[in-house]
Amino acid sequence: MITQEQCQQWDAKDTLAIFKNQFELPQGVIYLDGNSLGAKPRQATEQAQAVINQQWGTDLINSWNKAGWWDLPVRLGNKIGQLIGARENETVVTDTTSLNLFKVLAAAVDIQQQKDNRRKIIIAERDSFPTDIYMIEGFMALINQGYQLQLIDTPADLADSINQHTAVVVLSHVNYRTGYLHNMASTNELVHSHGALLIWDLCHSIGAVPIDLNSSNSDFAIGCTYKYLNGGPGAPAMLWVHHRYQTAFSQPLSGWWGHEKPFDMAVSYTPADNIRRYLCGTQPIVSMSLIECGVDIFLQTDMQAVRHKSLQLTDLLINLTEQECAGLGLTLITPRKHEHRGSHVSLRHPHGYAIVQALIARGVIGDYREPEVIRLGVTPLYLSYTDIWQAVQHLKQVLINQE
Amino acid sequence: MITQEQCQQWDAKDTLAIFKNQFELPQGVIYLDGNSLGAKPRQATEQAQAVINQQWGTDLINSWNKAGWWDLPVRLGNKIGQLIGARENETVVTDTTSLNLFKVLAAAVDIQQQKDNRRKIIIAERDSFPTDIYMIEGFMALINQGYQLQLIDTPADLADSINQHTAVVVLSHVNYRTGYLHNMASTNELVHSHGALLIWDLCHSIGAVPIDLNSSNSDFAIGCTYKYLNGGPGAPAMLWVHHRYQTAFSQPLSGWWGHEKPFDMAVSYTPADNIRRYLCGTQPIVSMSLIECGVDIFLQTDMQAVRHKSLQLTDLLINLTEQECAGLGLTLITPRKHEHRGSHVSLRHPHGYAIVQALIARGVIGDYREPEVIRLGVTPLYLSYTDIWQAVQHLKQVLINQE
């Protein structure tokens, strides 16, 4: 039997509790949606002022060099790289997750074609966040070379589906809906053993679980900065390419920011000899600059500590739900096993949508995803054990009122 | 003989002079680079605070609906549309100019293929801003269907080059380097008479010259919001598609923001039945929100008035340079004819780079473009006739010191 007092004791011993003060959250709100839009770092207000008033307003065009705007995609990429086991200059921040998937998919397909043009299958998960599938469809239709998309229904299906015809596999490291977490190293090994390449979508894992792209021998990764990394609404996405592939091909969204010498105004494209070749056009500097505020908070801690508390909080959320809400119609769809759990908990209920709305009215902000899924995100840097206790009490009341 | 007194008299009668107060410019600076990075509207500071502190910090995920984040690309597109002769829902703000070119190029090529698959030539200008050429190259290489890029050297070459093999023509409405302005209606007519489609790059004309995309019978247009429109560094770009083509094809960067029902999480892509199909991934909301500040200033005036003052200022800059700097090595490369002049003046000089640096040290901010080009942008809403007088006096001193 877990009690509120027990939660308070855990809070008193929580070494990450000090970080909450670096975020600004409205009074009376328990925010369980940091997996969709991360909370605002306090520093973001000041950072925006500096960028807008000083860099733009006063220094004007000079800020491209003086304020380092031009180098921001790589500089931020290297900071984020520290959280995901990247080497220097393997990561950039640019454009959107969807567009970055298009770039690395074109890269992966091109690299495979150089080796063996008979591999024509791209494997993805039916349950992935749909934009990944949509971008694969758009790419395949555009190149019109007989590629086919094969959708797998469960993670276990990958081993049965992959074979010598598979060119590329696209997987969500953590599933946006269920919270299922793939084992990165063993999945890379499986995919590589069949001669295929793997693109990791890190949208729901970056800033939520420890990631080591190099030691797990990954190929490509893309992901989002505005969820667990708290980069701000719609902030540009990240893209990582293992250094062995960085100059193996030229990606087709070949805008001037990816050019070897952008200011030479050459009449033909020559890609940069490094990760910059994954850049395309001029980036939204104000939004991009704010990403640094969230990342700098993560760089003060370490992902193992974040993971430890994340698992404690998701365990607590699962256990308390079972203790307090038994018989009230909830079905857990997030894996119980730690090694397959990301940092959110999803509960299915026939009235899921109405329940989420009722929770929001009580200041407990989660979100709803089709079909019937109540999704509750856990962000260890600004949530306490007591927050989880209170959230479950509200959930219980809502469910009882529902009956 | 033009005198400083004459400039002061013009300023006293200038009906647009009142707008300068809506921009924040540093003391002692004459800013002739608004064609590269527009000055900061005063309102941008307050707007950023509202978006960052209230919408992100307090309202959090709720702002996607409550603050209209989700609809921002179309809402801003419709505001910009008023400046360019667009109908309702023909314009969006999203991604970058480079990426938007890729989308409309794919659209234009697809539409042509539906009619006649033998047209395999894409015409562009050797002198265009290079990213346009780079994106065309990337697209052609990716689809690998035998398309060829034909570069024309002068605007007059278009008539000789276009024929029944031409699929698509990509032109800069105003050339980034020379300031040459194409006649939109007659060029559309020429291109259409050969059965080709035309994509206008408006980067150096939107907010600078009057544009009427519908009455000129244009097909597609893309462009930039951070130059003459003062949208902020790297702010997302615009994209316009004539309504006759809006649903004629599905663009290949088919991310979830372009889906017919994005929140249904459907497993396959169905494009929205409107201009939203040109969207792709989640947009950088803070940068995007600031665009409105600049556009709202333009909506208080009209583009004919802006154009009138623009031509007076560029005339003044050209005439004063000839009067004050005769024999000092400058060559005008911007067209003298009003109908072929955008809103910047470019002067070639063997020591162009050093001259621009010396001008910047004196607080006269223009920029340098290869080869040897001193580029001076004229923005009628925050420049005075006296500013031009003073800028030319500085230029004269720099040239004399150079000798």
Automatic annotation (TrEMBL), chains A, B:
InterPro entries: Kynureninase, PyrdxlP-dep_Trfase, PyrdxlP-dep_Trfase_major, PyrdxlP-dep_Trfase_small. Pyridoxal 5'-phosphate binds at residues 97-98, 129-132, 201, 204, 226, 256, 282. GO terms for biological process: anthranilate metabolic process; L-kynurenine catabolic process; L-tryptophan catabolic process to kynurenine; NAD+ biosynthetic process; quinolinate biosynthetic process. Its EC number is 3.7.1.3. Keywords: Hydrolase, Pyridine nucleotide biosynthesis, Pyridoxal phosphate. It comes from the Bacteria. It catalyses: 3-hydroxy-L-kynurenine + H2O = 3-hydroxyanthranilate + L-alanine + H(+); L-kynurenine + H2O = anthranilate + L-alanine + H(+). GO terms for cellular component: cytoplasm. The modification N6-(pyridoxal phosphate)lysine is found at residue 227. Belongs to the kynureninase family. Homodimer. Catalyzes the cleavage of L-kynurenine (L-Kyn) and L-3-hydroxykynurenine (L-3OHKyn) into anthranilic acid (AA) and 3-hydroxyanthranilic acid (3-OHAA), respectively. This is Kynureninase. It comes from Snodgrassella alvi.
